[in-house]
Amino acid sequence: MNHRGSNAVTEPKTPDWVRDAIFYQIFPDRFARSQTVAKPTNLEPWGAPPTPQGYQGGDLIGVLEHLDYLADLGINAIYFTPVFQSASNHRYHTHDYLRVDPMLGGDQALRKLIDGAHARGMKVVLDGVFNHASRGFFPFHDILENGPNSAYLDWFTVHGWPVNAYNHDQPAGYNAWWGLHALPKFRTETPAVREYLWDVGRHWIEFGADGWRLDVAHEIDDREFWAEFRRRVHAANPEAYIVGEVWEHRPFAALTDFDQNIDRTDEATRWLRGDCWDALMNYLFTRICFAFFIGSAINKDELKRTSFYRVDPTGAEAFQSQVEKLLSHYHPNTSAVMMNLLGSHDLARFLHFARGDKSALRLATLFQMTFPGAPSIYYGDEIGMTGGKDPDNRRAFPWNEPETWDKELLGDFRKMIALRKERPSLRRGSFTFLYAQGDVAAFLRQLGAESIIVVFNTGQSRTRIDIPTRNDVDDDLQFNEVWTDAQVRTENGSLHQIELAPRSARVFATSPIS
Description:
Elements: E1 23-26, H1 28-31, H2 60-64, H3 67-73, E2 77-80, E3 84-86, E4 94-100, H4 106-119, E5 123-128, H5 138-146, H6 191-207, E6 211-214, H7 223-236, E7 241-244, H8 262-265, E8 279-280, H9 283-294, H10 300-303, H11 316-329, H12 332-335, E9 339-341, H13 350-353, H14 358-369, E10 374-378, H15 407-422, H16 424-428, E11 430-437, E12 440-447, E13 450-457, E14 463-468, E15 478-481, E16 487-489, E17 494-500, E18 504-509
Parallel strand pairs: 1-2, 1-10, 2-5, 5-6, 6-7, 7-8, 9-10
Antiparallel strand pairs: 3-4, 11-12, 12-13, 13-18, 14-17, 15-16, 15-18
């Protein structure tokens, strides 16, 4: 398709490896704590109820020590929330962009972790917080110390003197993210700031990282800034993945609108033309999963705390409409590498939204593993971890309490991940809806001679349906149900009398591609 516009890339080139990626998001302070990394003494006990400011002492060597667990789960890519020096447990308040936090083990720990991950065929994506810094960042600290005599005044926007960095009852006196005194916003139009941030992007890719997740990336509303960031990053590694965080946006109705008035009408799609970012954290996907797999049972009080506000309409017809609309927003090369997530450090846990209904998590995860784009698992979801809005969604992984793990759920995650990894059509094939009525939806993934049909029943009743295969599948073609010995054949353009238990799914596949 010919996408118009002076800066448009006709066919965005996105990293090929992401099509095969199964991401695992780790919040470093809460995933694993190694006894080999020296720590300060005033830490919360591991597994204590998390607090907004307290540390529990997770580190990167702790992650390294559990890479075999991730490999056994089927993970081949890790996305870390920030790892750079900071005075916050989440490390979005960056003090030094060129130094890994000593509490995480420092630069040497990241070196060992990247090497250990790469030895297992895993990629490592870091979190870049480039829209704002912190009060402890050296140029802003220079302003606090020297006032109008600071050499770094043009790195930030100061409205008057004295600045007020700590009295939250009074305005800060400088531009800060969402007015938060702790987060002074960069003046990214300043040449020295641009060069510094571009150098950070290049530095850690040269160090060995495989990509960047960009925090509130659209708030740096500057195409040339991101285009140059991409050029610097790709000069170090042409296959580096660049994924932006954008929650609220109004994507285009169809690909034919890809480049019309793009800079004025859309917060997200305009960055995905192939010259800035590769993909987004796909929160539209999350919302669709909330609506279909949790539906009206969703925790509405928790939902009000998000930018989703509501998830209706629900049901299979709406599910088909929203999925097809989602896929139409982006070039296929972009859809193939979107980061499809069911939860993150910024959302209550999926199980919390679902009021503990693990069938909703199982169904949504199967959809995640059979849909175009890269699935991303929030650490601990696979063992049934739950929790409300942060900091409760950032609990410590219970390594020392395996009796609390849902082992059956963990086995199901392994099984669904393995299915995606075994079947090329689930990672690179076409996507076509076959059926969507009431509580039942079915779709086809197809690549070459391989066809896979996935059927969901989100209702509370057993049902039996005929699934039309249309012209996408040959008649009298045998399908084997994965994970069972059942066999079905297409007949007169349908799979006939497919029975579905309540809150269940079935997957039928032709013989694997050799």
